[in-house]
Amino acid sequence: MTRRRHIMMTTDSVGGVWIYATSLARALAARGDRVTLVTLGPAPSQEQRHIVERLLPDVSLVVTDLALEWMDPAGKDRRRAADTLLGIAAELRPDVIHLNGFREGAIAWPAPVMVVAHSCVMSWWQACRGGAPAEPRWKIYANAVDAGLRAADAWVAPTAEFRDTIASLYAPPTDGLVIRNGIAVSAEATPLKRDVILASGRVWDSAKGLTTLLSAAPLLPWPVEIAGPLVGPNGETAPQNANVVFLGELSHDRALGRMAAAAIYAAPARYEPFGLGILEAAAAGCALVLSDIPTLRELWDDAAFFVAPGDDAGLAAALRTLCEDRRLRTELQTAALSRAREYRIEATREQYSALYDALLGRASPVLAQREARA
Q1: Phi-psi domain of 27 (left: phi exceeds 0; alpha: psi -120 through 50; beta: other)
Q2: What's the pTM value of the predicted model, to 2 decimals?
């Protein structure tokens, strides 16, 4: 019997990385692994802490005040981060270091290290603004990302398209593995749906493309509900428009409840390396209306209604069609749920488990590559 592994996994409490990390940690623990989650960036909320407390003793939490790499592009906190994280590793003595960020890949870890590419500023900038940022601090950031990828024993992306984007931007010396993110998908029938269009995210973040939905909303027969923070870190506020209800920042359970009740979920993103919120909406039986960008096509082709990013009129027409055509809406709800069942957390766990074993010398790296691409 394979001995119990101890995984030290970095995470942050903002957005999808937290859901990814806690879901994977729970799944790994269910198969006998120990996972220590180490947070960077803003401290987790009380609700987020309770999620981990329910998984004790197999999943534990270490909270730090270290800066996330994209919040510290000039690298002012890099040395302190290395010292702090190495101190945690010396105490924990993990078998594998699983990093959900790039910069820390370059630390001289005492165990095999892997990096997961969830997103990066360079690819965000390319998709949302074109080109690359001119400020010198972002060059420092890019160099740190490059160093982390080069030093890691393996690196992973959640889609082939995003893996190729990272490879083209940074040219790491090793091929990236593709391991889809996963969630727990219920086998139960979805409840009766409300005539509402749901979206989620930071309205002022151009990556989410929600201003396109705001423009389309007055033309729609159903109300639009948007879940997400109403005030940004620099004082940004959500622009108002007719036929839109701002729900504010919801707990994860309340957000899932909104998805379960909504008939349609819209994600008009300009940039989305994976989109856990989209997957959760699909698993809740929502019909999906998505931007026609390569990553979302890769994941949801034939299971969603696609619209060109930034096309206000096209988005309005697509949503209006689904509101008025119950048969088409039901077909897309069924297709989205069926596709969501292909992205189960159990499959994600098994692919990461194969990679961990490859890093520990228990299996061939070729096998891990094959498992990750299955």
Answers
A1: alpha
A2: 0.92
Rounded to whole angstroms, what are the CA distances from 244 to 70, 248, 251, 319? 31, 12, 20, 14
Residue 52, class by beta-carbon neighbours within 10 Å (0-12 exposed, 13-18 middle, 19+ buried)?
buried
Among 232, 302, 224, CA closest to 268: 224
pLDDT tens per residue, range 220-264? 999 999 998 877 666 667 677 789 999 998 988 999 999 999 999
Strands of 175-236, DSSP E? 177-178, 194-200, 224-227
Token digits of residue 95: 């078998």
Structure tokens at 305: 């209604």
Angle at 68 between CA 348 and CA 125, to 5 degrees: 85
Counting as low any pLDDT under 70, the low residues of the chain are 1-3, 187-190, 232-236, 238, 362-374
CA angle 41, 81, 12 (to 5 degrees): 25
Kindly list the structural domains of the chain, giving each domain's residue range(s) and its CATH number in brackets, ordered by start. Answer: 6-183+345-373 (3.40.50.2000), 194-340 (3.40.50.2000)
Q: Where are the beta strands (DSSP E) in the chain?
A: 6-11, 34-39, 59-63, 96-99, 113-116, 154-157, 177-178, 194-200, 224-227, 244-248, 262-267, 287-291, 305-307
Ordered DSSP codes for 245-308: EEEESPPHHHHHHHHHHEEEEEE--S--SS-HHHHHHHHTTPEEEEE--HHHHHHHTTSSEEE-
| Tokens coding 32 | 């006998």
